[in-house]
Amino acid sequence: MLLLAGLVVGIAAETKFQVALLCAGVVIGLVMCGPRQIFGRPLLWVGAVVAALLAVPTLIWQAAHGWPQWAMSEVVVAEMEVLYGGRLGASLQMLLWAGVLGTLLMAYGLWCLLRAEELRPYRFVAVAFLVVLMVFVLTGSRPYYLAGFHGALVAAGTVGFQLRREGGVGRWGAAVWPGLALGVVLTALVLSVSVPISNSDVGERIAASTAGAYGDLSAGEQRRTVLFGKSYILAAYLDGYSEHFDLPPAHSPNRAYGYFPLPDESSTDVLFTGTDPSDLEPYFTDVREVRGPVGDDIDARVWLLTGRTTGWNEIWQEIRTLDVA
């Protein structure tokens, strides 16, 4: 399991470096609470080496591209006020994303890990959780960054209830029952007023609009036209429905898409999906709207830009961004 853990950590590091924070929290928890004998297990260190080796390629890539993941952390902080109501709102959501009952069970699980002697061997999990939570709160991270930890505390809470039922944890956990009862009532109320998400088909609608504009082009025009999403979200919609609508791969200068391969130099025209093509407009001789808004609730239009006047590499250096447009 220690070797497999190293493998998982290494693969996770190729996506996001936050897994290193989790590892640091676990190490701190083990040092503080034990079982410290785990540090004498050879496979722990073999797993650590495996994780480090798997992380090397992405570290090299990040260094070669100016550490975009580090720059992304600044974007996350800047967006926190708009998306989550500031640091306080984001901090509360880190816990409340588990739902009312889930949050209560997490709190009970944390209490069990810190107080129940039967769960003493797993107390390091509680310390790791508190370390990761504290760092995420202080650095202004997104609420879902902590969601992977919810299951561990819920499991601890569940075991705590079983131990209490068997008489192993005394009376100190009795106060949680009224809280869980209240949680059931609140959850029922939330579910009773929930409404269906009206824009669940938004991606398909946007892709269909783009596909209609692409289909209006002649075969020759299609060969020299590249699909372009103003944001990575729009580009992902187009890619996600590419087989359904028979669309070529989409491009975007936004976030990870901005680091994907550039459009081919033979692509002189762009079919742009978004709200405003002003970033691209200076590099083309003609810009015209070919599709209006997808609906009253979605202001995603389609423009055709023709006559590219400079190379894609030069354009990309000017328009690539981590901010969602």
TrEMBL record:
Keywords from the named record: Membrane, Transmembrane, Transmembrane helix
TM segment ranges: 6-31, 43-64, 94-114, 121-138, 175-197
Protein name in UniProt: Dolichyl-phosphate-mannose-protein mannosyltransferase
Organism listed in the record: Rhodococcus rhodochrous J3
